[in-house]
């Protein structure tokens, strides 16, 4: 046996084609067939209990429930037709009896019915015999059989609700009443019906109402047709005709027909019957001739999720049933939907169209072709050939989303996050977003007729099958990653490995391939051409592949080899799934059963088989936590199984799965809902204000009414008191008179009776005397007898006297007492009624008075408390006003300080501007000096660079002197003296320039001293200015903060307590003892003067800015001119350097000549050498002095650039605004 057990947990779907497929077990529980089970469904608590069908049954034909709601009969078709009776009071719905046709060969039972006492059962067998069986079902005894018809089908059989022996049978051209007598069923009516009767119901012991295919209601009394009527009105008949004409235009083969009465059910007020597509009519009894009047029409509402909402209205009603208390009417349709409505609500909605509601959820109405689950949410996605996609929740057992499309749907895959879905249509596949209330297309892919699709476990890829090709797409880029080609037939199933690195596929060509999703290569294969595979699954470690197909075996494939085979006993496997713990396999079969097989696969045939569906299972999935098994079938049902592991395995279950709660919603929807919420909030606020206003008005009106009523009631109470006094006096008088009358009449009657008594006494004395005389004459022997006789007669006479007197007198006394008693009772009753009436009125008045007093007391208390609050708030307002005046005075003083500070700032701005101008002039001069220094630096550097190589050349040439000629020497000396004179002149000019440079140095030192003084002053002024500006900023920040706090205080103007508290905090925060000054108003003249000066200063600033711009332009022109002069001077210096180099060369040559002619002219050579050396020393000294001077100038300029950073006036500078 398998170590894993599957229990039916919940099912979504209704099995159509079953007669009477919806029944009420009690007020909250219904029974309906779904799959190969009968389901007991609680409407309020949403739980289900299952009654599994019998094994090897081909289909379910009909249901019936007993009158006492205890027994359920299920007719099934198999090798032979059977009826199984279940005991519904047993917890597991225990099977009681299985009834068959016995010796009569019966293939199926088409309809059934229990007797009113639940002891007998009718079963109508199908064609061609159409035999009706009459059982005592508890004894499994056939009481009688009869052939009901020989041609048409039988639609319904039923018992007379008052008689177990009378039976009604209706069908095509059949309406027969049978009565059980003498061990046989005998027909009791002779009606030959030609219409096709689809349903009937017993209204009383003699009356039956039947519905026909043409929309007629036939009423039979004692088996005879009394009258008939149409089930629909003229308008609805014309609408039905229009619909049928439209259908006949669309499909000419379908004949036009009137609304069919497919179901009738009776209840205490009348009956309910179907009246065409999607319509149920209620009929109630009328007082005239036991007729029926149509009262209400209930319709199936249009489906908003469908692409054609009116299609839901075209469903045909197949079954109607009413709850035991006649509160709820439920119905089932030919498209597998269940609806219900509360009859009280249907009767109350007189002016509106009554509509059904779903009994549980909207179900699939055709073959389910796709099934998928996700990892992060408890969701199930299914698609069907009914053009719909449905999203279910297997934790709450509810339908989350539902949408219909125009095309057929073949496959579906749910993203692991539960937020997206891929659906395969006939023309393409679509990637859709699962929103809160809709399924919207996001991306389309051109893959036609996709029968299989699946997301990878990571969700970053999905595979889609197109014939024999598998396409793999990226979920992020939507690009095609791989196209896996290799199958020769259609691919029927695919499965991803746990790490998404491999994909396994199987197809109709008998091939099972394992693909590498990274490279697209086929890594392993197993081909068996004699088998067409329909399902494939992977083990958790991806080492083994399990496949099922058309050869009725389960195969385990490992390393391209079939490792094991499990034969299924000639049952075709359609799909397969494996638990994530790897402990068990589940297979779905073509007969709708589910088999649980232990893994590793057993050598023998060991499995557990469960009854699941009534058609082949198409898909099967195990949830990621191994809690549930999900199966879908061609019967349109989704079945959820609870998985239980007997051996305690299943590591997945040890960790509780926590599901995500996030959802998708578009921005437009969110904004729309937020807008609606805002509108609703504003509407609520408006309604609150309106209600408060109305309540105030009502309070005022009620107070006025209370005053009026109190005055009125006080007047009525006074009048009632006076009336009560008058009536009490009258009553006392009537009592006295009645007593007197009673005494007088009683005395008269007593006197008469006394006189009669006296007469009788005299008569008795006389008789006694006569008898005494006679006794004396008699003998002694007769004395005793005479005495006895006399005593006897005396006793009799006494009795007669007493009876005569007492009878009359007591009769009269009794009559009088009775009369007086009745009069007293009447008067007492009247008095009591009057007293009770007025006491009740008085009590009511007292209660109302007390209530009004209490209310007035409460109102007085409220008024006094409100008055006190008003007084307190007035006092607080006065205090606040005083504090406000103080604060205003304080603000005015602060503003005055601000004005003074602003004046100081303006003065400091003026001084700063003057100093800025002075600094700007000094800087301009400094820039000129820097330019001159730059020219000198450049000259010195150039001279250095040229002197040093020349000196080196002179040293080298001294050693390479050749003997010059005398003539050349003389010429050289002549030229040399001329050049020397020219150089001396230039040197004089250079010395003059040096003097000018010394003057510049002196001026520069004076300027430096001036700049230093100005810097000190500027620094002090800056410090003062920054201090004043910081003070102004602090004051402005304080004022702004005070304004903000004061504005916040004004927000509490309607709440005195909060206003008081905020003013107190404001006072404590901003007012100090030292700041308490008297209020001084700001003079308007001061403000006017301030604004005038401000305008004047702004104009000055604007004119200075323009002047600055002009001066900058002039300065730029001067700068350009100086740069040109500098360039000219640099050129002249370069020329001088070249001439100096030539002179040096000539001097060198001259020295050489002097050395050669030393003997001839020693004195002149010595003078020349001395002169040359003097000139060289003088030049070196000048160069050295220039270098020192340039170095000093460079240092001074660097120091000035570090210390002197004069601020230039900004174009955006504005004076601060005056804040009031």
From TrEMBL:
The UniProt regions of compositional bias labelled Polar residues, in chain numbering, are 1197-1213
Which InterPro entries would you find in this protein's record? Beta-prop_EML-like_2nd (IPR055442), CFA-57 (IPR052993), WD40/YVTN_repeat-like_dom_sf (IPR015943), WD40_repeat_CS (IPR019775), WD40_repeat_dom_sf (IPR036322), WD40_rpt (IPR001680)
Residues covered by the EML-like second beta-propeller domain: 369-643
Listed Basic and acidic residues bias regions: 239-250
For region Disordered, the annotated ranges are 231-255, 1197-1220
Name of this protein: EML-like second beta-propeller domain-containing protein
The highest taxon in the source lineage is Eukaryota
Species per Swiss-Prot/TrEMBL record? Pygocentrus nattereri
Chain positions of WD repeats: 361-402, 484-525, 610-643
Q: Which Pfam families match?
A: Beta-prop_EML_2
Coiled-coil blocks = 670-723, 757-788, 835-897, 997-1031
């Amino acid at each position: 046996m398998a170590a894993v057990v599957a229990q039916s947990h919940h099912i979504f779907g209704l099995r159509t084609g079953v007669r009477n497929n919806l029944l009420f077990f009690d007020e909250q529980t219904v029974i309906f067939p779904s799959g190969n089970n009968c389901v007991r469904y609680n409407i309020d608590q949403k739980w289900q209990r299952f009654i599994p069908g019998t094994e090897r049954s081909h289909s379910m034909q009909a249901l019936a429930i007993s009158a006492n709601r205890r027994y359920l009969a299920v007719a099934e078709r198999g090798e032979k037709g059977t009826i199984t009776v279940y005991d519904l009071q047993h917890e597991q719905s225990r099977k009681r009896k299985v009834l068959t046709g016995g010796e009569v060969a019966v293939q199926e039972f088409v309809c059934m019915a229990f007797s009113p006492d639940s002891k007998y059962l009718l079963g109508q067998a199908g064609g061609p015999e159409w035999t009706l069986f009459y059982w005592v079902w508890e004894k499994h005894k056939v009481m009688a059989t009869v052939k009901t018809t020989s041609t048409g089908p039988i639609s319904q059989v039923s018992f007379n609700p008052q008689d177990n022996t009378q039976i009604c049978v209706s069908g095509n051209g059949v309406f027969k009443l049978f009565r059980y007598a003498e061990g046989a069923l005998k027909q009791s009516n002779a009606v030959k019906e030609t219409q096709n009767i689809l349903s009937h119901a017993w209204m009383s012991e003699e009356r039956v109402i039947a519905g026909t295919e043409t929309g007629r209601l036939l009423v039979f009394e004692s088996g005879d047709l009394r009258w008939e009527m149409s089930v629909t009105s003229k308008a609805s008949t014309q609408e039905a005709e229009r619909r049928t004409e439209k259908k006949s235009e669309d499909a000419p083969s379908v004949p036009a027909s009137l609304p069919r009465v497919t179901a009738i059910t009776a209840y205490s007020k009348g009956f309910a019957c179907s009246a065409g597509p999607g319509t149920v009519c209620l009929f109630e009894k009328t007082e005239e001739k036991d007729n029926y009047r149509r009262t209400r029409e209930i319709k199936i509402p249009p489906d908003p999720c469908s692409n054609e909402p009116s299609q839901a209205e075209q469903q045909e009603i197949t079954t109607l049933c009413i709850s035991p208390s006649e509160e709820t009417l439920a119905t089932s349709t030919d498209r597998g939907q269940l609806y219900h409505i509360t009859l009280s609500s249907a009767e109350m909605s007189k002016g509106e169209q009554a509509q059904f509601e779903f009994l549980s959820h909207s179900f699939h109405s055709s073959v389910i072709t796709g099934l998928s689950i996700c990892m992060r949410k408890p969701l199930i996605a299914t698609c069907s050939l009914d053009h719909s996609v449905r999203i279910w929740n297997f934790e709450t057992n509810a339908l989350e989303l539902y949408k219909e499309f125009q095309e057929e749907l073949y496959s579906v895959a749910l993203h692991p996050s539960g937020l997206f879905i891929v659906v395969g249509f006939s023309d393409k596949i679509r990637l859709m977003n699962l929103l809160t209330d809709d399924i919207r297309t996001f991306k389309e892919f051109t893959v036609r007729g996709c029968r299989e699709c699946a997301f990878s476990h990571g969700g970053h890829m999905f595979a889609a099958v197109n014939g024999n090709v598998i396409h793999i797409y990226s979920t992020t880029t939507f690009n095609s990653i791989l196209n896996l080609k290799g199958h020769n037939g259609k691919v029927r199933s695919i499965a991803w490995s746990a790490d998404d690195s491999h994909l396994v596929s199987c197809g109709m060509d008998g091939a099972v391939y394992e693909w590498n999703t990274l490279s697209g290569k086929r890594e392993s294969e197993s081909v068996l051409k004699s088998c067409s595979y329909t399902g494939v699954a992977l083990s958790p470690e991806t080492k083994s592949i399990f496949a099922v197909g058309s050869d009725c075996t389960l195969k385990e494939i490992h390393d391209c080899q079939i490792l094991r085979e499990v034969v299924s006993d000639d049952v075709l496997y359609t799909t397969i799934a494996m638990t994530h713990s790897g402990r068990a396999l589940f297979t779905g079969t073509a007969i709708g059963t589910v088999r649980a097989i232990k893994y590793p696969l057993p050598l023998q045939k060991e499995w557990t088989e469960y009854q699941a569906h009534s058609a082949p299972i198409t898909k099967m999935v195990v949830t990621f936590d191994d809690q549930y098994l999900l199966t879908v079938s061609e019967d349109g049902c989704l079945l959820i199984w609870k998985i239980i592991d007997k051996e305690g395995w299943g590591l997945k279950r040890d960790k509780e799965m926590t599901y995500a709660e996030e959802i998708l919603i578009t921005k437009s929807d969110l904004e729309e809902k937020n807008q609606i919420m805002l509108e609703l909030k504003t509407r609520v606020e408006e309604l609150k204000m309106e209600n408060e206003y109305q309540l105030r008005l009502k309070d005022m009106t009620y107070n006025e009414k209370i005053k009026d009523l109190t005055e009125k009631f006080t007047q009525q109470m006074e009048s009632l008191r006076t009336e009560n006094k008058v009536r009490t006096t009258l009553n006392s008088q009537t009592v006295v008179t009645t007593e007197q009358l009673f005494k007088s009449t009683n005395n008269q009657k007593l006197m008469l009776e006394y006189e009669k008594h006296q007469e009788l006494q005299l008569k008795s004395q006389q008789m006694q005397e006569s008898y005494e005389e006679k006794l004396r004459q008699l003998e002694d022997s007769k004395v005793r007898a005479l005495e006895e006789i006399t005593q006897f007669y005396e006793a009799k006479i006494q009795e007669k006297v007493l009876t005569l007197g007492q009878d009359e007198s007591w009769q009269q006394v009794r009559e009088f007492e009775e009369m007086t008693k009745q009069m007293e009772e009447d008067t007492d009753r009247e008095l009591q009624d009057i007293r009770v009436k007025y006491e009740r009125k008085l009590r009511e008045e007292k209660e109302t008075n007390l209530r009004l007093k209490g209310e007035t007391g409460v109102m007085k208390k409220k008024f006094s408390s409100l008055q006190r609050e008003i007084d307190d708030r007035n006092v607080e307002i006065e205090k606040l006003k005083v504090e406000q005046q103080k604060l205003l005075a304080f603000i005015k003083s602060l503003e005055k300080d601000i004005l003074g500070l602003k004046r100081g700032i303006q003065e400091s701005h003026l001084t700063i501007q003057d100093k800025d101008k002075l600094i700007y002039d000094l800087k301009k001069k400094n820039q000129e000096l820097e330019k001159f220094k730059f020219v000198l630096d450049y000259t010195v550097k150039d001279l250095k660079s040229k002197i040093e190589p020349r000196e080196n050349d002179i040293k080298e040439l001294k050693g390479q002197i050749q003997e010059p000629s005398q003539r050349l020497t003389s010429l050289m000396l002549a030229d040399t003296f001329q050049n020397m004179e020219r150089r001396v002149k230039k040197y004089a000019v250079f010395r003059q320039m040096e003097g000018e440079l010394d003057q510049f140095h002196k001026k520069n030192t004076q300027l430096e001293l001036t700049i230093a003084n100005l810097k000190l002053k500027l620094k002090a002024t800056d410090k003062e200015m920054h201090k004043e500006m910081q003070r102004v900023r602090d004051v402005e920040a304080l004022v702004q903060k005070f304004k903000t706090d004061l504005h916040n205080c004004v927000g509490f103007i309607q709440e005195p307590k909060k206003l008081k508290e905020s003013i107190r905090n404001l006072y404590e925060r901003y007012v100090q003892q030292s700041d308490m000054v008297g209020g001084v108003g700001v003079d308007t003249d001061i403000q006017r003067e301030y604004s005038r000066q401000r305008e004047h200063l702004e104009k000055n600033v604007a004119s200075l800015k323009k002047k600055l711009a002009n001066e900058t332009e002039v300065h730029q022109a001067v700068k350009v001119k100086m740069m040109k002069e500098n360039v000219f001077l640099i050129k002249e210096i370069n020329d001088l350097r070249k001439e100096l180099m030539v002179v040096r060369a000539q001097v060198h040559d001259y020295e050489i000549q002097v050395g050669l002619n030393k003997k001839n002219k020693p004195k002149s050579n010595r003078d020349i050498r001395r002169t040359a050396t003097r000139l060289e020393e003088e030049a070196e000294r000048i160069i050295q002095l220039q270098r020192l001077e340039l170095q000093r100038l460079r240092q001074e300029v660097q120091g000035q650039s570090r210390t002197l950073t004069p601020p230039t006036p900004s174009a955006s500078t504005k004076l601060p605004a005056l804040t009031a």
